[in-house]
Amino acid sequence: EQLRTEETIRRALENERELNELRSRFTSIVSHEFRTPLGIIMSAVELLRNYFGRLDDGQRQELFDDIHGATRRMAALMEQVLVLGRADAGKLSFTPGPVELEALCTKLTDESQSATVKRCPVALETEGDLSGASGDEPLLRHIFSNLLSNAAKYSPAGSVVKFRISRDGGDAVFEVHDQGIGIPEADHPRIFEAFQRAGNVGETPGSGLGLLITKRCVELHGGEISFRSDPGEGTAFTVRLPVFAQ
User: Fold this and answer.
1) Which of 87, 130, 169, 223 has its Cα between 20 and 30 A from that of 35?
2) Where would I find the beta strands (DSSP E) of 81-234?
3) Dihedrals phi, psi of 156, to nearest 5 degrees
4) Any idea of the CA torsion for 93, 95, 96, 101, to the nearest 10 degrees?
5) pLDDT greater than 70 at residue 214
6) pTM, full prediction
């Protein structure tokens, strides 16, 4: 009985330490992710307020673009936090319906390039008959928007991101392959955890929530996600979803 009590206490203390670590990472990342765009917005507004008449049209447009980009960055972070909150509360529902996979992925590719200001061209490739799929389109959007965004974010500007879709029996197989910085092997086991970021990301902005949300959305589809990656050699994520009736 004493040993069981000690084990219970040990586990409680371990859970408390993990929770404190999670809170610390949340505070650090979220405060940084808000502080930086807020600083950009405040600086741009001050310049527009005090020097509007002295700025030419190009300078004004650049400041407006800065404000718009910073606002989108904060909105994206809030959306990620809300989605994760719904998932943790069991309120992120799975509502499948007919999905035109090729059309959806073409649209997501265009949206991704627009959101990243065409930082990296995306080469979309489809193979086989992809008609007749059934899935939850909002969840699919979370999955591939996150993967395509990460691929562009952590890759050299101008490098090609490959986005391939094929069919394997009742599964759709999606591959997103970049030529970026890769993920160090030491970070592989925890890469799908909340607020976990690879040790080589440097000052590249990010919340550490995207891949966790991606994994949750994949699991709601009854699918699987895996990756292979080496530092400096790029990263390839593979998502397998059972979206075809057999």
Assistant:
1) 87
2) 97-99, 122-126, 133-135, 161-168, 171-177, 224-229
3) -65, 140
4) -70
5) yes
6) 0.74
